[in-house]
């Protein structure tokens, strides 16, 4: 998994989960399999290309990951 996908997954996790669950990110991301990585990569590309979920990309791309260093 490359850094761009990892950061996108982290932003999605932050956006989609309550703060009390943020501590579970490391466990969740470490259990993602190859097929899921492929699917998430396609989903990220679609969002970035503004095809589906473009409003979500605009929101999650603004999340400052430096505020969530404790999740790594």
Walk me through the topology.
Elements: H1 3-16, H2 25-30, H3 34-48, H4 54-60
Helix pairs in contact: 3-4
Which key terms come to mind for this protein?
globular, mainly alpha, single chain
Protein architecture, described:
The chain has 4 helices and no strands. By secondary structure, the protein is mainly alpha-helical. The longest helix is centred in the middle third of the chain and has 15 residues. The radius of gyration is 12 Å and the shape is globular.
What would you say about this model in short?
It contains 4 helices and no strands.
The ordered H/E elements are HHHH
Oligomer: single chain
Q: Over the alpha carbons, how many angstroms does the gyration radius reach?
A: 12 Å
| Uncertain parts | none
Percent range for helical residues?
55-70%
Helix/strand structural class = mainly alpha
Count of runs of 4 or more consecutive helical residues: 4
Termini separation: 15 Å
Number of strands: 0
Proportion of strand residues: under 5%
Query: What does the largest sheet look like?
Result: none
Give the overall silhouette.
globular
Overall pLDDT: 89
